[in-house]
Amino acid sequence: MKLQSVGIKEFTCPISIREKSGSLQQTVATISMKAAMPHHQRENCVSVLVQALARYREEISVSVFPRLPAEVLRQLQAEEAELEMTFPYFIAKQAPVTLTTSLMEYECGLTGRINRAGEDELLLSVSVPVTTLCPCSKEISHAGAHNQRAEVRLTVRPLRFIWLEDLISLVERCGSCQLYALLKRPDEKFVTEQAYANPMFVEDVVRMVSQQAQARDDIAWFTVSVESFESIHKHSAYAYVDSRDLV
């Protein structure tokens, strides 16, 4: 019986990510690897995958794409190999009024795949929290409007190198207001009033992120999803766009 793919999941190890400032950020990645195997292959591919990761242990970073998948492809004589890693990325961020600095955490990811024809693909993703404030609630209420935290996930296929910071900044400009790890009272006043002045549905956020991504000449295609964790509903609100479906 021919298997579709075999591999390993949730292998954790330390990695280094280069920051836009030029420094190296040490973080911990969760890594998954899989290979599409030819039907005659009987070798224990799990050990091959783990050994391949071990050889790159000292240099696990963006630079291993697509070298590591290509090595796995060659060793296993596979039809396709894929490497996916997700990791927390931290950015020092100043509060809007008091300029108090705190670390914001963002979930980021890289996916690289290569096939026997030598065709490869690299995908870069960021998950960014923002505030959304309901335009309908603002319109019908005499005092206030409900707001909530939303999670925006942007995945792009870059045409050239893109800094994580630039993608995160792109998304943060598209909510009712940005989020911060630490706010003092003047900052809280600012962010709540800014959100109230900039009401947005999840549909508005996904459209704005899409417009920002389309305006860049270093992105081949992208997907955007927005989930709003509603404060007055038990369910979430959700919107999604795939640029390949846009006319």
Question: How many individual helices?
Answer: 6
Q: What is the beta-strand fraction?
A: 35-45%
How many structural domains?
2
Instruction: Give helix and strand order, one letter per element, not per position.
Output: EEHHEEEHEHEHHEE
Oligomer: single chain
Rg on CA atoms, Å: 21 Å
Q: What is the total tally of β strands?
A: 9
Low-pLDDT windows of residues: none
What is the CATH architecture descriptor of the largest domain? Roll
Structure overview:
Strands 1, 2, 3, 4, 5, 6, 7, 8 and 9 form a nine-stranded antiparallel beta sheet that branches. The chain is an alpha+beta fold. The model has no long low-confidence stretch (mean pLDDT 89). The chain is elongated. Helix content is 25%, strand content 40%. A hairpin with a 5-residue loop joins β1 and β2 (24-36). It folds into two domains: 1-86; 119-247, Urate Oxidase (Roll). The protein is built from six helices and nine strands; from the N terminus they run ββααβββαβαβααββ.
Lay out the secondary structure.
Elements: E1 6-18, E2 24-36, H1 45-55, H2 67-76, E3 80-94, E4 101-115, E5 120-133, H3 135-140, E6 147-158, H4 164-172, E7 177-178, H5 185-197, H6 202-214, E8 219-228, E9 237-242
Antiparallel strand pairs: 1-2, 2-3, 3-4, 4-5, 5-6, 5-7, 6-8, 8-9
Q: What distinguishing features does this structure have?
A:
alpha+beta; Urate Oxidase; 40% strand
Briefly say what this structure is.
The chain is built from 6 helices and 9 strands. With 247 residues, it is an alpha+beta fold. A hairpin with an 8-residue loop joins strand 8 (219-228) and strand 9.
